[in-house]
Amino acid sequence: MKARLRPSNNLTRLLTPGLHVKRWLLLLMVGIVMVALAIGYVLRDIYSSNFRFPNFVSDLTLQFLPRSVRGLLFLAVGVAIIGISFYFLGKSVLGPFLPGGAGERGFVQQLYDYRLLSRGPRVVAMGGGTGLSALLRGIKKYTGNIVAIVTVADDGGSSGRLRDEFRVLPPGDFRQCLTALAETEPLMTDLFQHRFSGDGELGGHSFGNLFIMAMAEITGDFEHAIRESGRVLAVRGAIVPSTLTDVVLCANVGEELRVGESKVPVGDGHIDRVFLEPAAPPINPEAENAVLNAEMVIIGPGSLYTSILPNLLVDGMIEALRASPAVKVYVCNVAGQPGETVGYTVSEHLDAIQAHVGGNLFDYVVVNSNLTPPLPASARRAGVNRVTFDRQRAQQHPVRYILADVVSTAVSSHHDPEKLARVVMKRIWRER
Q1: 3-class SS at 412?
Q2: What are the pLDDT digits (tens) for 289-306?
Q3: By three-state DSSP, how is residue 148 classified?
Q4: What is the CATH number of the domain that holds 288?
Q5: For 388-397, which contacts have Cβ atoms below 8 Å and span 24 or more sequence positions?
Q6: Taking Cα atoms as reference points, which of 377, 383, 365, 381 lies closest to residue 411?
Q7: Of 15, 74, 168, 237, which has fewest CB within 10 angstroms of its CB?
Q8: What is the pLDDT of residues 208-252, one digit of tens each?
Q9: pLDDT above 90: residue 325
Q10: Domain that residue 277 falls in
């Protein structure tokens, strides 16, 4: 059954400052008043000419009530009619042009969201994988000025196969960011995330990856393909690669050299160092410009060695971060990751970043304070543990730690998008 429209709830949104609607409503009211005055002058002349109106006109115009009461009644009814007419007129005329259509929220709510989010801070989110997409899902409710900088070192699964065959940047992390920032109906998002089954050539590929590849062939450019895919999904913000160079992530694990992002966390041993091949790939100019103009840069959550550091190791990225006036936030994972950070504390995450790119990079570090939810059975079997806050050692890093409950109740090894965004935007951004 279709939900009933409740215009009054949407009409109250018109009174919210910053919508750029009230000024035009006021102008409309002035025009209506002028027309009413013109009609009044004409009626006055008719009355003065001794013209006799039929008796029913007296009842329709409530002549039996005092003039002050009649005036207030007509004013209230007129304002209500104008407001409701404006609502439905806007819904009919503007609805097809709004992101996602008019929808059940109504055009006023969508207009409110658009105006509010357009005034939000300029945020750069950096990382890859599920961690970055979780952050984006929450942040997009607070600002529409988002740039997601995505690692291009992924070489596993569908992305790896497409990368090897077509020699393009891996589309998987870009696809996850697109769906995270999308404003389209859930069916389109599910379609982009759909993964084909079977053992044939399509088996294991996601539809979104194939769509991006098709768009890249049509447009002739991977970056252009991401932008056009964003239009299809009505993405809120922009998604750019950290570098346009075809890079390979390598790692030193003791005496062993592991080549390829998917190979880095496989096996035993402590990761000593990760690096990119070719060495020092240049930063994507779009990513550099976004960092330099950002008001807040959020790094993480995500795999420390395979999502976070590959972005920071791009030549020019650290220099851009240090030159940027933005507030810089590191979101530490809520749980360790097999083959990468099992047993790591908060300070050990920061130590690893400092060893690769230097220290004093962040202003804030977000740390999960809720350690009570049990980890999933699969994580426990893999030896995964909660990332703990070693306060005494962590104080060696000159940052401000924000301890908050940011863990997901659905998947307790991941961040909750809404909790994380609330901490970042309401505690850090407002109190910076």
Answers
A1: coil
A2: 999 999 999 999 999 999
A3: strand
A4: 3.40.50.10680
A5: 388/345, 388/346, 389/345, 389/346, 390/345, 390/346, 390/347, 393/345, 393/347, 394/345, 394/346, 394/347, 394/350, 394/365, 396/347, 397/347, 397/350, 397/354, 397/359, 397/365
A6: 377
A7: 15
A8: 899 999 998 899 889 999 999 998 888 889 999 999 999 999 999
A9: yes
A10: 120-151+242-431
